Each structure stands twice: as structure tokens, then as C-alpha cells.
Automatic annotation (TrEMBL):
<dbReference type="InterPro" id="IPR007419">
    <property type="entry name" value="BFD-like_2Fe2S-bd_dom"/>
</dbReference>
<dbReference type="Pfam" id="PF04324">
    <property type="entry name" value="Fer2_BFD"/>
</dbReference>
<protein>
    <recommendedName>
        <fullName>BFD-like [2Fe-2S]-binding domain-containing protein</fullName>
    </recommendedName>
</protein>
<feature type="domain" description="BFD-like [2Fe-2S]-binding">
    <location>
        <begin position="41"/>
        <end position="94"/>
    </location>
</feature>
<dbReference type="InterPro" id="IPR041854">
    <property type="entry name" value="BFD-like_2Fe2S-bd_dom_sf"/>
</dbReference>
<dbReference type="InterPro" id="IPR052745">
    <property type="entry name" value="G3P_Oxidase/Oxidoreductase"/>
</dbReference>
């Protein structure tokens, strides 16, 4: 039979975690492409800044997918469903975590919006004359 999962009780565990709510004041003027991460709007639909994404990436639970960052910051939940901000979010995750952009998938390992890359040798063999 296989190994069993061993679970130990943690005395310091708190099952009630407060939500991280980022309130912007009425004078907030985020700008697409701003140099200051706190004002650089990445998701224009949900008004999520680069600083908010970086803050979520620095929290204890690792983020390795677009869905994970979406659940923490709302990027990709707006009208465009991530078509505008998805590539930018992927680039930020890659830059901050050191993962390659190919390792950052929509919903974790095994999910992809693109077909797998074919080896160059496949195309060479395909075009080779008999």
C-alpha cells in the first residue's frame, strides 16, 4: 500500500484569516505604464497596480499560476478576462519569482492556453526530402 499522509496539529494555527483588502482613495490616479509600481495599473478593468501584485507574490503561499494571482488580487476578473493584463501579470510573476514564463500556467501544472512547443528537429524531419 503506499505511504500515508501524516498530519500534526499546530498549536499556533489560526483558521480565521483576515482578507487582504486594498482600498484606494477617491484621488487615486493610476496610470498604465507608470514607473512607480504603486501607480502602475496592470489590470485596467479591476484597477490593480503592479505593487499589489508584488505584495501578493511576497506572501507566504507561493504563486505559480495566473489563477493564483487572480484569486488574491482580482487581476483578470474584469471585462477583458485577463486578455489585456494576463501577459503583463505573467511577466511580473516571472520577474519576481525567477520562474520562466513557460512555467507560469493558467491553473497550475498541466494547464496551458497554448499547445506544447514542438522540438525544432520535428520540423526538420517533417520537411526532409525522402
Amino acid at each position: 500500500m503506499g505511504g500515508f499522509l501524516c498530519i500534526a496539529k499546530k498549536d499556533h494555527f489560526n483558521p480565521y484569516r483576515k482578507a487582504i483588502i486594498v482600498n484606494k482613495d477617491e484621488n487615486f490616479e493610476g496610470i498604465l505604464g507608470h514607473k512607480d509600481p504603486a501607480q502602475n495599473i496592470i489590470c485596467k478593468c479591476e484597477q490593480v497596480t503592479e505593487a499589489e501584485i508584488i505584495d501578493a507574490l511576497q506572501r507566504p503561499i507561493p504563486i505559480k499560476s495566473l489563477d493564483a494571482i487572480k484569486r488574491r488580487t482580482r487581476t483578470g476578473m474584469g471585462l477583458c478576462q485577463g486578455h489585456f493584463c494576463g501577459p503583463k501579470v505573467k511577466a511580473i510573476i516571472s520577474r519576481e519569482t525567477g520562474l520562466s514564463e513557460e512555467e507560469i500556467t493558467p491553473r497550475g501544472k498541466g494547464s496551458s492556453i497554448l499547445p506544447p512547443r514542438a522540438e525544432r528537429s520535428f520540423f526538420i524531419r517533417l520537411n526532409a526530402k525522402p
